[in-house]
Sequence to fold (434 residues):
Amino acid sequence: MTATAIPRGMPQYDDVPRYDVERVRADFPILAREVNGHRMVYLDSGNTSQKPRVVIDAMREHLERHNGNVSRSVHTVGTEATEAYEGARVKVAAFIGAPTPDEVVFVKNATEAINLVAYGFLSSSLDVAGDPRFRLRPGDEIVISEMEHHSNIVPWQLLCERTGARLRWFRVTDAGRLDLSDLDTLINERTRLVSYALVSNVLGTVNPTSAVTKRAREVGALVLFDGSQAVPQLPVDVTDIDADFLAFTGHKMCGPTGIGVLWGRSELLAALPPFLGGGSMIETVTLERSTFAPAPAKFEAGTPPITEAVGLGAAVDYLSGVGMRAIQWHEKELAAYALDALATVPGLRLFGPRTAVGRVGTLSFDLPGIHPHDVGQVLDSLGVQVRVGHHCARPLCVRYEVPAMTRASFYLYTTFAEVDALVDGLARVRKVFA
Fold:
């Protein structure tokens, strides 16, 4: 693809992969629509991304020609559905560098993926025969961070309440980075699990992994990464980040809602008890007892989200075709441009890193004296779509002593002109509420 249009004065590097953002935008039908009489400026991809036509077409074609249930029939349509579903698993495994597709479990979303692991800890803690790696006792500890999405807070709170374990967390610095100053104290011999986001959904911070995983290995703790914001925007390889589990969701990476992924090391998935019981996840069933199929089937009870998996597979193909390094660099340039542009807005308070290093194109901010809901409504009247609220990360709002934030989140189809539209819209907000 040809080079992305870069604003005058920004540095250009010949060795960095690029693509034509207008050509990419043409693949997304919704980006041509208008909102309130204005060309839509979609800056809420951290909430959910838009879908390229190839994903929409793949799902429609599957429903029109290959709609059957999986792993239940020997007829043609059932076989085609099974092949499509398992083919999507193979694509996802390759996309994240998984050693085998059998380590990829399809779930409803990242929330369900994290809850699946939490249930494994709970079940093993109540079963004396449970795997000791997943057994929690009073006084054991789980470590998260202050910047987590509620989906990576609430399951662990519930688990601690039911087992007597203790929840602890990394603090966040004023600059929006994880505070690792007390790493060796926070992760200690009582730590059983460390779970945090690879990328903050509010601050855009790309969090470090090597120092944390090294310390976790020293004390025998497992590591789960929430990759919901990372997998769509950065090249992520589960071997490189030394994860035990990785959770992410399809709808933030050009795929449909209703499909997510839990990746886990084979030996850990074998040790985890099943999360749901029913058809397809069994080996044998009698009225007295049942035995279970190996992973991933053990965790996919009932009819799975087949069409959604096909859509996710198509999304993986699309992102791979554009190139994850190119997407990463595009967002880096957008972030640098937006940081400079937002700095011109009088009184604006930005949360998170002030440079494009170690961050993605997710920027949250506050305009003093103007509630984020009012900011969002004025921007919407101009066709600019942003998210407002606490972004399912209320502890982070408490940390920065604000009731809510406004968030603009970019993606592979975002343009520099759309950043300009955001800044122009904020000028209108200030005028309305002056």
In short: DSSP finds 13 helices and 17 strands in the chain. The CA atoms of residues 67 and 81 lie 6 Å apart.
